[in-house]
C-alpha cells in the first residue's frame, strides 16, 4: 500500500514556538535520517532536499531502486522545518492531491502527529485511527520530559530520582537535593530532543557523558541556577526536568507499534553507539550508529520489556496510535532505569523497523 511520509520532526508543535539553532539543525538532520522509513512507491514530504546518493544508498540497503520514490519539498522561509501552516498550504495540498490520484488506498505516516497532519488526512480522504487524539494535540503528552515522569510514575516504571522545575528557585532546590546521590545530575529542557536540550552537571572530573550536549564540572557552592535557567529555557518552554545521573552499563531503547486495532507489537531493541570527538574541547559524545538488536542479555531484555509494555499500553489507552520508543539504561549497579519515551517517529525507528529481533545482529553507521 503506497504511503506519504511526512518529515515534520522538530516542528513548533513538537518543540515549541521558538526553536533554538540546535533544534533547527536537529530537524534538518532528522529529515535525512527518517528517510530510512522509505519503501518502494512512497512519497516523501520533506522540509529539505534529501540527497539523491543518500536515497540510493537507502534503496540499495533495503532492496529497492530509489527511482521508485517521489520527493516533495515545499518552498518555505523556514526551510529546515515542516510546520502545519506549510503542510496545509494550497500549493502542498494540491501537489499531494495530484500525486495520490495515480493510486488508491494511500496511508499517511508523519514523524509527528500534529493537528495539521490530522486535518491534511481529512482533506486527502486518508482516515487514520488516532486523528481525533492528534486534533487535540494529544501526542504532545508523549513528547515532554515532565509528562513522561508523570505518566511513567502512574504505571510504576523505575525512574531516576528527579523533579520538575518551573523557575530558577525550583531548579536550585532540585539540583541541591539530587546532587548527593551520584555526584552528577542531568538537567533537561522539557521539549528538547536528541539530547540537544540536556546538560550534565558533575562534581567529578569527567569525560563527556552520554545523553547531553554538554558535560560540565561544577563546584556546587558556586552553582548559579539563574544563569543555567536563562541559558536553557526558551520563550515557549519554561520547564526543566532535573534527575540524578547514573553511569550506564547498558544504554538501550525499545521500539513498539500501537496498531489501529489497539494491539501492541514489539518491533526491536537497539543500542546507540557513541565515541569521543577528536576535538578535546567537545563536551558531547558523537553518535556513530546503532547496534540492532541491543546488546542486552535475554533476562535483561525481558525485564525491560515487561516494564515498557505497561507504558505503551497507557499510551494506547490515552488514544495514541503509531510507533513509540522508550529509552532506558541498566546502571552500573544493575538497576533498570527509564529515561524518556517518544511518541513521534524517530530516526532510529526508520532503521530499526528493517531489522527484526530474529535477524542477525547488524550495525548501522550514521
Can you describe this structure?
The chain is α/β, with parallel strands linked by helices and 366 residues long. Helices cover 32% and strands 24% of the residues. It contains 12 helices and 15 strands. The strands form 3 sheets. Strands 14-13-10-11-12-15 form a 6-stranded antiparallel beta sheet. The chain is globular, with a radius of gyration of 20 Å. Mean pLDDT is 87; it is low at 346-351 and 354-360.
Mean pLDDT: 87
Q: Order of helices and strands, N to C?
A: EHHEHEHHEHHHEHEEEHEEEEHEEHE
Percentage of residues in DSSP E strands: 15-25%
What strand line-up does the widest sheet have?
A: 14-13-10-11-12-15
Task: Give the % helix.
Answer: 25-40%
Largest sheet: 6 strands, antiparallel
Enumerate how many helices there are, as a single number.
Answer: 12
Radius of gyration: 20 Å
Uncertain spans: 346-351, 354-360
Structural class: alpha/beta
Amino acid at each position: 500500500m503506497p504511503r506519504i511520509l511526512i518529515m515534520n520532526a522538530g516542528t513548533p508543535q513538537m518543540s515549541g514556538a521558538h526553536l533554538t539553532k540546535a533544534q533547527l539543525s536537529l530537524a534538518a538532520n532528522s529529515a535525512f535520517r527518517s528517510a530510512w522509513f522509505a519503501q518502494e512507491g512512497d512519497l516523501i514530504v520533506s522540509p529539505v532536499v534529501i540527497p539523491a546518493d543518500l536515497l540510493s544508498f537507502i534503496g540499495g540497503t533495503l532492496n529497492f531502486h530509489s527511482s521508485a520514490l517521489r520527493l516533495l519539498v515545499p518552498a518555505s522561509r523556514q526551510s529546515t522545518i515542516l510546520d502545519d501552516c506549510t503542510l496545509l498550504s494550497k500549493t502542498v495540498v494540491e501537489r499531494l492531491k495530484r500525486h495520490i490520484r495515480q493510486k488508491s488506498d494511500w496511508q499517511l505516516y508523519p514523524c509527528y502527529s500534529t493537528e495539521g497532519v490530522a486535518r491534511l488526512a481529512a482533506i486527502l480522504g486518508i482516515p487514520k485511527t488516532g486523528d481525533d487524539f492528534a486534533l487535540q494535540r494529544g501526542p504532545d503528552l508523549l513528547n515532554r520530559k515532565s509528562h513522561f515522569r508523570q505518566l511513567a510514575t502512574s504505571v510504576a516504571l523505575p525512574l531516576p530520582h528527579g523533579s520538575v522545575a518551573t523557575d530558577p528557585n525550583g531548579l536550585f532546590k532540585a539540583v541541591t537535593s539530587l546532587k548527593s546521590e551520584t555526584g552528577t545530575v542531568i538537567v533537561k529542557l522539557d521539549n528538547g530532543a536528541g539530547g540537544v536540550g540536556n546538560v550534565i552537571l558533575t562534581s567529578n572530573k569527567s569525560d563527556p557523558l552520554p545523553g547531553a550536549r554538554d558535560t560540565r564540572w561544577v563546584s556546587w557552592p558556586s552553582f548559579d541556577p539563574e544563569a543555567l535557567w536563562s541559558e536553557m529555557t526558551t520563550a515557549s518552554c519554561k520547564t526543566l526536568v532535573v534527575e540524578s545521573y547514573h553511569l550506564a552499563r547498558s544504554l538501550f531503547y525499545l521500539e513498539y507499534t500501537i496498531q489501529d486495532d489497539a494491539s501492541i507489537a514489539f518491533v526491536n531493541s537497539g543500542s546507540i553507539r557513541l565515541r569521543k570527538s577528536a576535538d578535546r574541547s567537545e563536551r558531547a559524545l558523537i553518535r556513530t550508529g546503532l547496534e540492532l538488536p541491543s546488546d542486552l542479555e535475554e533476562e535483561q531484555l525481558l525485564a525491560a520489556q515487561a516494564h515498557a509494555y505497561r507504558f505503551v499500553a497507557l499510551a494506547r489507552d490515552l488514544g495514541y496510535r503509531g510507533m513509540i520508543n522508550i529509552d532506558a539504561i541498566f546502571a552500573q549497579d544493575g538497576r533498570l532505569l527509564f529515561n524518556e519515551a517518544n511518541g513521534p517517529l524517530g530516526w532510529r525507528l526508520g532503521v530499526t523497523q528493517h531489522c527484526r529481533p530474529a535477524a542477525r545482529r547488524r550495525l548501522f553507521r550514521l
